[in-house]
């Protein structure tokens, strides 16, 4: 298969990934994501999360994102947490 054909096929099958890239970045790099660029419904949670030295310490000490989000309080940062797949 020609490289451009393969790229077009890949791009057409994964258009949702590009559409949701901002959400993926917020979840995967919450301490580096500029809160000014965050959607308004997430902005305050993101500011609180980024202001927490305790959460930053947890984030840097956890080996996976799943471990980090598990360690966050169940009621805290609901909008910044990844949505579990069913």
TrEMBL record:
It comes from the Eukaryota. This is Reverse transcriptase domain-containing protein.
